[in-house]
Amino acid sequence: MQRVKQLAAHLSGSSSGLAALEVKRPDDVVITMAIRSPLCKAKKGGFKDARTDELMLEMFNKVIAHSGVEPKAIGDICVGTVLTSDPGYLARAAMLAAGFPESVSVQIINRFCSSGLMAVTTVANQVRSGQIEIGLAIGIENMSENPDKGGPTFSELISCNAAARDCQQRMGWTSENVAVEFNVTREEQDAYAAESFKRAEEAQKRGYFEKEIVPFTVLQKTPGSDKRVPVVVKEDDGIRYGTTQEKLSKIKSAFPQWGNGTTTGGNASQITDGAAAVLVMTRREAERRGLPILAKHVTTAVAGCPPRIMGIGPVFAIPLALKNAGLEMKDVDIFEINEAFASQCVYCAKELQIPMDKLNVNGGAIAFGHPLDESFSVLPESKEADLPGISTLHWGTADCHWSQRAAPSAGQGKLS
């Protein structure tokens, strides 16, 4: 009955906008842990020799070590992954091998690059509805082992539809379509990419990412041998120091056969291996356990867009998320838009009128790489201040979070 009353209070509109976000309720859906692996260049970086099930196992091991929650207390696990073959088998086996009891369940979700955000949304909604008290969301992609081979061949009954036929096209084609249709120049794309690299380099040099990265122990081949030995990987290895717009301007087009050929290996995201995990529970449960509250999950919005320009999804999803949360653009301090391609980021920022000092403030996927559905976060930039923020993926999924400062003495979330 108490839960029904609280849900009714949420729906009654008794408070709105930022004021509503500041209200602390026992049934708030909060995030108490947000960790990730280093992001490593596919085929070349720290995880190049690791199997997908091994990366899953290590992610589950790190969850047990850092969550502050006994494995049996987790009500459900949702793993987002896109390219992994037989992911249900791998996730179930890896969680059991890590020490989760058989009584804990796991599910798989695939909404392409939004899969990680949807994993968070799935467990958040389970907590919000009272189905579970604690949920674990994981996003993982091993692009060294599972490269993106593009879309499948469709039946003629489907491919006779133009929009359906577009679903078979390569992502580079969609980037060039965005650049042409919305007049995004090569210069704008290179300038955006250079800024992403600059911000990521500065953040890495000052040790910013050390608070969210957990070192991963993986197996790597020794030089000149197929023998694999354990190696500890501690930091992202894809950030190219000293990248400038001038240097980027000299890179040849990656897709000269499409559009104006403005997309390059320098202004698009790298293919990358990585994993991340988020623990979600009610505020009541977090306070009972004395766990730090990093953020409150407010809402999620999804929106479709034409497949031929799939990268502009945030233009549709962000306004929906704001509407759901009772917010306006001016209320949001931090935006994260996944940088699959600079073309779509430049357009989205322009169309939504997002100031650059609020967008991807520590760099994005162009600098770090894009392990498809590991590209979700809890807005780490805003963890140290009381900032409302939005994470989006180019397919059209937006998560709205209200981040909370951790009080150093009690370790509890605090809104000032």
Automatic annotation (TrEMBL):
Pathway: Lipid metabolism; fatty acid metabolism. One of its GO terms (cellular component) is peroxisome. Residues 292-375 form the Thiolase C-terminal domain. Keywords: Acyltransferase, Transferase. Residues 29-283 form the Thiolase N-terminal domain. Coiled coil: none annotated. The keyword Transferase applies. GO terms for biological process: fatty acid beta-oxidation; phenylacetate catabolic process. Pfam families: Thiolase_C, Thiolase_N. It comes from the Eukaryota. The keyword Acyltransferase applies. GO terms for molecular function: acetyl-CoA C-acyltransferase activity. It catalyses: an acyl-CoA + acetyl-CoA = a 3-oxoacyl-CoA + CoA. PANTHER family: 3-KETOACYL-COA THIOLASE, PEROXISOMAL (PTHR43853), ACETYL-COA C-ACETYLTRANSFERASE (PTHR43853:SF10). Belongs to the thiolase-like superfamily. Thiolase family. This is 3-ketoacyl-CoA thiolase.
